[in-house]
Amino acid sequence: MRPDSDHIADLIRSEREQALVTAASRAAIRAPGLVIDADPLEGPPAQAIVEAGSSALMLVVGSRGVGAFTAMTLGSVSRYVPAHAGCPVVVVRDPSAVPHGQVVVGVGDPDDCAEALGVWRDKYPGVPAGQEVVPGRPARILVGLSARAGLVVIGRHAGLQGPGPVRHAVLSHAHGPIAIVPSS
Question: How many CB atoms lie within 10 A of CB 110?
């Protein structure tokens, strides 16, 4: 006897609705006052998230997929969304990571980004900030620093899509959350 496909689809929709309600409730408890949009999306997940977030200030996604390759460090959504979204994207690693207060910002050319970093220093003068030029392979350095950082921030050039080698390596191997910020 074959199960009714309409019944199965209804069960899947019901489970999806309950998961969204649960996730929104947890987020509201952790961040009261935060605007939370928990509408179900249609279509391929990665593209649907990018499209739904086209007017968002930030998108947050997990790092692992649920498909056949769950052992992979980086899921297809967390690979696609940071490369295509028009807003900053934070990829959150497993919650077991110990949070640290340090934020690491990876930049290719300190002279090219000094103005952007100077704005944040001026805006938050009480936050200790340092600058260190580290020679070597950028991806390896950023992954190493991620072990003691609460967040690693890397940029994405405007209009440049696809998996840049540094971004891909950091997303795949960092020990904590990563923010990918498109340049304006």
Answer: 11
Closest CA to 45 of 76, 82, 86: 76
CA pseudo-torsion sign 84, 90, 95, 96: positive
Q: What is the pLDDT of residues 110-154, one digit of tens each?
A: 676 666 677 777 888 887 777 777 888 989 999 998 888 888 888
CATH no. of 43-182: 3.40.50.12370
Domain ranges of the chain: 1-40, 43-182
pTM (global) more than 0.70: yes
- What percent of the chain clears pLDDT 70, i.e. is strictly above it? 81
